[in-house]
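sorry for the late reply, my laptop died twice this morning and i had to redo everyting from scratch. anyway the thing you sent over, i finally got around to it. pasting the sequence first so we're on the same page, its 280 residues, then the predicted structure underneath. double check i copied it right bc i was rushing
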Amino acid sequence: MSETVAPKVWFITGTSRGFGRAWAEAALERGDSVAATARDASSLDALVEKYGDRLLPIQLDVTDRAADFAAVAEAHERFGRLDIVVNNAGYGHFGFIEEVTEDEARAQVETNVFGALWITQAALPYLRAQGSGHIIQVSSIGGISAFPLVGIYNASKWALEGFSQALAQEVAPFGVHVTLVEPAAFATDWSGASAKHSEPLPDYADVHAQVAASRASRNAAPGAPEATAAALLEVVDAENPPLRVFFGTSPLTTAKNDYAARIAQWEEWQRVAERAQGSL
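ok and here's the structure:
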């Protein structure tokens, strides 16, 4: 990787706070240009005042496919190219699977899956035409492992992981990279003001209490979103960026334990797999 990096053009969704805000500021601070989206564009006024024409604020609800395509086109028209597209907009939904309503489930998937899909589809023609580009999909440790209380959120991130892994293979011939960023617990509004909650069922009261205690222990020391900026810049500046990268120290242990258990169970039941094939 060269020590001198040419200025890049970013398109980042969900920049009013959290990861999106930290990454937009880091990109602008080093001289890059950013098309930044938010549900309320006025939340970006301070960045416009500080960075001027290098920031393009766009009011956007990522669940609106037509608006997604228009926003990406506006960014490309303004800056003439797109180098890094970051699908960061999303939220966490809390509720046991039996508690999640149809509207809640659909809303979670509309934002976390379809929002990222529409932005990705909108950006790809530009990236393919220029023969370069990097799509950053903000997933989670919950995108490879699943935890009680956030099952519908896990489902949305597993879907994001699935289509992004396929996408990476489809666009590699065009010089386009795809990276899934899988953070641990960070001090964002993911579990706070931006989160949604299902109405709890009384029958699960004891289980809710157990899960709450486990979550509190697991997330006792959340990371600072601002600290991830340097890590993301290293990923996007890499000549051969990874398909997947954890942010935080705990996800690797979680992943190793989870996948070791999966492999052990698959091996234990391999005889049944073979019987299903008709070989026994």
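DSSP finds nine helices and nine strands in the chain.
thats about all i looked at so far, will dig more tmrw
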